[in-house]
Amino acid sequence: MALRTRSSRRYALGALPLTAALVLAGCGSEGEADEASGETVTIGVEAEYPPGEYLDTDGETVLGFNVELLEAALAEMDMQADWEPANFDRIIMGVDSGNYDMGSSSFTITEERMEQVNMVGYFSSGTQWFAQEGNPEDVDPDDACGMRIAVQTGTTHDDDIEARSEACVEDGDDPITIEKFPNQPQATETVVSGVNDASLADMPTSAYALEQTGEGVLEFIGDQYDAAPYGIVMHQDDTELAEELAEAFNTIMENGTYEEILEEWGIDVGAVDSAELNPDVDE
Q1: Which of 38, 53, 129, 257 makes an SS bond possible with 64, Cβ 3.0 to 4.6 Å?
Q2: Rounded CA separation 120/278 (Å)
Q3: Which domain holds residue 156?
Q4: Eight-class DSSP state of 272
Q5: Inter-residue contact 73 to 252 (CB < 8 Å)
Q6: What are the tens digits of pLDDT across the range 91-116?
Q7: Which residue range or ranges hold the Solute-binding protein family 3/N-terminal domain (predicted)?
């Protein structure tokens, strides 16, 4: 079932809406809405990665800063979004097979991904580790050998922690015990409960975890690292449309909409100067 688009109301990171009010779409027929709003594009989304993309309390409406940014860009193209739920590691395959026109799920742009699909860069985020307040297990991201670490499967953080564990073994230390989850909130919960010692995620998502669990529950450990662009995923044959999307992102950057959205979510630190199709990335 397709997910309804989010309301136009925006929220600061400090007031992210686990109890956000649902604003219903207009009362016209579906055909009238399509005619008024232009072409509809189907977007695969793993809507369990707040604050980038997640479900409102109705279980259908997609909220998040990535949602707002993409919908603002699509509006410049006279298009509207039809969000469809999917597992994170299935979205790129879904775009490649034609099931989705686009994919948007806080995808870090990598050379490997750009071998499969086009990616339009529009935001930047690095990796941030977090643990229980006080870091009781004394987790060091640069020396996590023998620790229990929770991570979302299929992400760049999954690759990161696997590489760190392999390095531990090569150095004669104990491997990292890696517990993988289909979404980040589940991984976070195991850190809160003490089942795992720490987790790592994109900076906005780690900040959200600290915000939502409340004061004195979790804390950052170490600094953010490996900042890289987020990208909207599009089929390799859709280069012309991907270029148009990059232009639309640049339009909202120029007219102030982009900055407004990021500031109201409290994540303007991740702003980029311009959107680009298949940008160069250092890996």
Answers
A1: 53
A2: 6
A3: 126-226
A4: -
A5: yes
A6: 999 999 999 999 999 999 999 999 99
A7: 40-268
